[in-house]
Write a structure and sequence with these properties.
With 436 residues, chain A is an alpha/beta fold. Chain A contains nine helices and 22 strands. The longest helix of chain A is centred in the N-terminal third of the chain and has 17 residues, at 27-43. A six-stranded mixed beta sheet of chain C has the order 6-9-10-3-11-12, sandwiched between helices. Classes of the chains: A alpha/beta (436), B alpha/beta (480), C alpha/beta (249).
């Protein structure tokens, strides 16, 4: 079934994967994998000639062989991982792409909440889940979504019943520990909130090593009418890892999304966040932060599609670049003809603190309705010399002054996150940069 | 021979420059081939190097494909159905502009550009280009006194070949893009300006472009060279008859600014834009670029784009000299079914280079208005600064306004700021202004002026008044 | 000066005004009070000529040069030039257009209409500054775009400034007091009182009685369901403040 082809030369272990999924996979999953694989084979890896990949070159993936992970090998750094735990939270843990029951705590879930690692068969028996799987036209899948789907098998599944309010944080943790060889994992999650449900969900991609590996993630989030979700994606991968992830959010009437993305790890990171505001009165906040150094490359792409009237969206992405790091930001706002009274705001701010940093930013508006208020902006610059000087005259050494001001730049956006346990986790990922 | 005008060709009554001049032209075959290029070169009695240059461009053009990335929809262009040269029959040895064909003089007078000695505009030297040739240039004597060369491109090729060899294609090489290559192969005329060292050009220089013939394209080429410590302000205007066939205009403009030199280039573009249903109009595919070679040099582009069925144009500045400054001020108005994809490129190479971009897009009816811009800070450009502001205004609910700014920074010491916004003319605003005694026209004019004031103030005074009137005329009927 | 006769008006086909009759003479100050949704703002918009409202019956007679004309037949700007002024409840923001440019344009329209000479920017600047002192307004205001990023109080003061500049014969003040703190209201009321004369008339539309302590009306009318249900002197306002509107209907 899986035919080895040139485009897939950087992935190995296809046969083993096939054997693994064969016994229990239903026909639809088989077909989905096959079609997606064909699609990827046809497209291949994107090149910088494609507008969407103009500033991020993934050709170097081909210099590696990423073995599809199949067993949850022993975690070497349990202690480090445990630092991200809290007893009262609901943890769903995957190691090298494989569910770890002993590290997850899914017993005694509150009423109205389902959190599970499900296989493809179980997933499809869920009527709503099946609907979500078919919501986005398959032929519009980009290379990496197709690649993720080609290896669909286990799904991190979160479902909250209508009118249910879940207080504790639901934390999906993907840890990669590629002790022996480079591995590839294809995390897939599905988060669904029923009418007027409320929850806080965090997805973390972590590694406590400097291994080389590939994470190709796909998350789908559906917010039914009046649902409210606080969502955080934290990427603290190894500094040699490739992370390519897409989160798609579908929002019905009056639903509220408050999202935050933090990117600190990875050699090459691409993070797509695509929002469809499909019902009147829906609101999405897309905030993001990236701190990178060395030769790291982070690329954030956001797209907000305003379809009906009276929706609002706000975006603030901030980044600090050290050394020779490189950041890309591409934010698209679409306002469809029917989307009158749209209010949309977007800002990307970059602080260049290294000698050889690069930034490519492309905020983009496409507007087809006239009664709208849209603004976007981008700034690129350094710390204010006067502020540094002021701190120096108050006895603070320059290096510390720089750190203080950078911390201020970061806190300005971290302070917008209401949930203290999310902030605490994000601060752990930022420890490399700040001493406090 | 130009066909007598048909009643039904006057598709758009609102466009007051839509008339056709009935004048005898030299016949020229349609289509493009090496033979045609040789004929053009021969007609103009060009030196051999020029013909070679054209042929090289043509051979390169044949390897290129028409760009598809702009945000446009239009049918295929048949490059073999276009006549690449059209000129009124020439009388030999004209002694003065007063001897130019009466029909031509009348045409330019109707366009508001009188050329004859008695009537010509004071303070502005005009080069008038009719289809493929320059009809004449005013105030040449006065300019010569100051050492300024201002003449048609054809004249410059025969009188100043050393300057042409040195600078033609030095900013926009023939290989730059599809339309620049086409222009390099077939360009017919245009204006040439040379401002010598230390001279502040005593007059505003201006070129007026008129497309008249049917089935012909206009491929003009303009080259402005400002030597050390010189200054020049240059204006161009464009119109064409209303025809229900699309016509191609593919121009190239090159600017060169040496140490401490300053070039101000202003355009009021009012090509025929087609009728309400999008029939006819000029395809305006233009490559404009300036190079700030010298330190402290300055180039500014100011444009009011109000015509043409399709506009594809990105007046750019290469900031090569240290401390050089590039500016771009633009108002682009689209109505009916017009499509515009316009903006600028600022390429920062030298140290402490600065650029400013102010773009105002107004879309109405069923039109599509895009800002596309690039600010690129190269690794050598220490201390580079850019400020960009792109605002769109939508009038009515069937148009669209898009913004595609690309910002690429390869030097850590750069400081850039980009802002963009959209706004609208709303019924409530109209009522508010009317309840204070302003009529509909006055209210629209007030809002448009407010929206575009940063750009209008960059235009020479007479042009700015013209530009405002032009926009108001175009917006009439869309608002209220 | 102005007489509203049997006025019916509706918006999007739902009737709001149901037969208003009101006569206002020069030198008079009238106040209209009424519960929310009674049609107060509609009346002001109909007088100024807002295109969203359609008048289904009735006339508004307005005396110009000793001749009566039907105001309803004029465009909004024609009414303004004849001396009708509406101070908006929610003044509209006009980004990009500076206040001084806007005010001069409006002022000169009225000059033109009256056959008077238009003012050049310098003369107007002086005139504007004089009027601004009247309302205790900051100099910075001149170059700011009309109403953009103005506080609620600034917007209302700006409306009265416009009244001072355009010098109308008949001014409608639509809830000019709402949202103002007591100090701002005093400034606004002082401004209005200074503009009051024997030759002009003012129609105050308000929800609260407190404004009427500062701008004292000659008549108070109560509007309920699009009809004037009671008219009397200024004491009526106090009664309404005390008892509410229920006893009237």
């Amino acid at each position: 079934m899986i035919v080895k082809n040139d485009q897939l030369s950087f992935i190995s272990g296809l046969k083993e994967f096939e054997i693994l999924v064969k016994q229990e996979s239903p026909l639809w999953a088989y077909n989905l994998r096959k079609e997606s694989l064909d699609r990827f084979a046809k497209r291949g890896l994107p090149t910088v000639k494609e507008e969407e990949w103009k500033y991020t070159n993934v050709a170097s993936l081909k210099e590696h062989q990423f073995q599809i992970a199949s067993d949850s090998s022993k975690m070497a750094q349990l202690k480090e991982l445990k630092a991200y735990y809290r007893k009262e939270e609901i943890n769903l843990v995957f190691i090298n792409g494989v569910f770890s029951e002993e590290l997850s705590n899914l017993k005694k879930l509150p009423k109205g909440l389902k959190v599970a690692d499900v296989n493809d068969a179980a997933l499809y028996s869920q009527k709503e889940a099946a609907f979500v799987l078919q919501r986005y036209p398959q032929d519009q899948d980009d290379s990496f979504i197709a690649l993720n789907k080609a290896f669909l098998y286990r799904v991190a599944f979160v479902q909250i019943d209508p009118k249910t309010v879940i207080k504790p944080l639901i934390h999906i943790i993907h840890v990669t520990d590629a002790v022996k060889s480079s591995v590839s994992s294809f995390p897939r999650s599905l988060i669904m909130l029923g009418k007027s449900a409320e929850a806080q969900v965090m997805e973390s991609h972590l590694s406590f090593s400097d291994d080389t590996y590939l994470t190709n993630a796909l998350s789908d989030i559906v917010l039914d009418q009046d649902a409210k979700l606080v969502y955080c994606k934290a990427q603290g991968e190894s500094k040699n890892a490739f992370h390519i992830g897409t989160t798609r959010v579908w929002q019905e009437r009056d639903s509220q999304l408050d999202s935050f993305s933090l990117m600190t790890g990875g050699k090459i990171t691409r993070n797509n966040l695509n929002i469809v505001l499909n019902g009147s009165g829906a609101h999405a906040t897309l905030n993001g932060l990236y701190l990178i150094n060395g030769n790291q490359h982070v690329d954030n792409h956001t797209a907000v599609d305003h379809r009906p009237p009276n929706c609002t969206s706000t975006q603030l992405y901030k980044g600090i670049l050290y050394d020779a790091a490189r950041a890309v930001f591409n934010g698209k706002i679409f306002v469809k003809k029917e989307a009158q009274q749209t209010n949309s705001y977007q800002l990307n701010k970059n602080l260049l603190l290294g000698p050889d940093c690069r930034v490519d930013t492309k905020p983009q508006l496409e507007i087809f309705a006239d009664d709208v208020k849209c603004t976007h902006g981008a700034t690129i610059g350094q710390l204010n010399e006067d502020e540094i000087f002021y701190l120096q005259t108050r006895c603070i050494p320059k290096s510390q002054a720089v750190e203080m001001l950078a911390r201020g730049f970061v806190d300005d956006i971290l302070n917008r996150i209401a949930d203290e346990s999310i902030v605490a986790k994000l601060n752990k990922l930022l420890a490399e940069y700040f001493q406090d | 021979m130009v066909k007598p005008i048909q009643e039904n060709e006057l598709v758009n009554r609102e466009y007051k420059y839509g008339f056709v001049t009935d004048i005898e032209v030299e016949p020229f075959p349609k289509g493009l081939s090496e033979k045609v290029i040789k004929m053009i070169s021969e007609k103009k009695s060009e030196p051999d190097f020029m013909l070679e240059w054209r042929l090289k461009a043509y051979r390169h053009w044949k390897t290129l494909k028409e760009p598809k990335w702009p945000n446009f929809k239009y049918g295929p262009i048949d490059y073999q159905a276009i006549s690449y040269y059209s000129a009124p029959k020439k009388k030999t040895n004209l002694k003065s502009l007063d001897e130019v064909d009466k029909e031509l003089l009348n045409t330019f007078e109707r366009l508001g550009i009188p050329l004859t000695e008695q009537k010509r505009l004071t303070g502005v030297a005009v080069d008038a280009v009719f289809d493929s040739v320059s009809v004449g240039t005013t105030h040449q004597g006065e300019l010569a006194k100051a050492g300024v060369i201002f003449c048609s491109m054809s004249e410059a090729i025969s009188h100043h070949p050393e300057l042409i060899k040195k600078y033609l294609g030095s900013v926009v090489p023939h290989s730059d893009n599809f339309f620049a290559a086409l222009n390099s192969a077939v360009f017919s005329d245009g204006s040439f300006c040379y401002i010598p060292k230390g001279v502040r050009c005593p007059l505003e220089l201006s070129t007026y472009f008129r497309i008249n013939a049917a089935d012909s394209g206009q491929f003009e080429r303009t080259l402005i060279i400002a030597e050390d410590d010189s200054y020049v302000s240059y204006l161009e205007g464009c119109t064409a008859p209303s025809r229900d066939q699309n016509q191609l205009h593919a121009a190239v403009v090159e600017l060169v600014a040496m140490n401490n030199a300053e070039i101000k280039y202003s355009t009021v573009q009012n090509w025929y834009s087609g009728d309400k249903n999008g029939n006819g109009g000029i395809y305006n595919f233009v490559t404009k670029r300036g190079k700030c070679i010298g330190t402290n040099s300055k180039i500014s582009w100011t444009q009011v784009e109000a015509g043409a069925a399709i506009t594809w144009k990105y007046p750019s500045v290469i900031l090569q000299g240290d401390n050089s400054v590039g500016k771009f001020y633009s108002v682009a108005l689209t109505n009916n079914r017009m499509q515009a994809d316009t903006g600028t490129k600022m390429i920062h190479i030298g140290k402490n280079t600065k650029s400013t971009i102010v773009s105002k897009g107004i879309s109405t009816d069923y039109s599509n208005n895009n800002y596309r811009g690039l600010v690129k800070i190269m690794p050598t450009a220490h201390g580079a600064r850019n400020f960009s502001q792109c605002d769109s205004m939508l009038v009515g609910n069937n148009c669209s306004a898009n913004t595609f700014p690309y910002i690429e920074v390869k030097n850590s010491s750069a400081v850039l700021e980009h802002e963009a916004s959209t706004s609208k003319i709303s019924a409530e605003q109209m009522f508010y202004l009317r309840s204070r005694g302003l009529d509909l026209e006055g209210a629209v004019s007030l809002i448009i002026n407010g929206f575009c004031k940063e750009v209008f103030k960059e235009l020479p005074l007479e042009f700015s008044v013209e530009a405002i009137k032009l926009l108001e005329m175009k917006l009439e009927g869309s608002v209220g | 000066m102005l007489e509203i006769k049997d006025l019916y008006a509706s918006i999007h086909e739902s009737p709001i005004l149901n037969g208003i009759n009101l006569k206002i003479n020069s030198g008079e100050v009238h106040a209209i009070m009424g519960p929310n949704g009674s049609g107060k703002s509609t009346l002001s918009k109909v007088i100024a000529g807002h295109p969203d409202y359609s008048v289904t019956q009735g006339v508004i007679e307005y005396e110009v040069n000793f001749k009566k004309i039907n105001l309803l037949e004029l465009e909004p700007e024609e009414r303004a030039r004849e001396g009708i002024f509406l101070a908006f409840q929610y003044p509209v923001e006009i980004p990009g257009v500076s206040s001084s440019v806007f005010l001069r344009a409006a002022f000169n329209e009225i000059c033109k209409h009256q056959g008077a000479e238009e003012m050049d920017p310098l003369e107007f600047d002086e005139y504007l500054r004089k009027k601004m002192k009247l309302l205790d307004m900051d100099e910075k205001f001149i170059n700011r775009p009309v109403n953009v990023d103005f506080s609620g109080g600034e917007k209302k003061r700006n409306e009265i400034l416009q009244m001072a500049i355009l010098n109308p014969r008949f001014a409608v003040l639509d809830e000019t007091d709402s949202g103002l703190d007591i100090d701002s209201m005093r400034i606004v009321a002082d401004g209005v009182n200074k503009l009051k004369s024997k030759k002009n008339a003012i129609l105050l539309i308000t929800h609260y009685q407190r404004l009427l302590n500062y701008i004292v009306p000659d008549f108070v009318h109560i509007l309920v369901n699009g009809k004037i249900v009671k008219s009397a002197g200024k004491e009526l306002a106090l009664k309404v403040e005390e008892k509410g509107y229920d006893w009237l209907s």
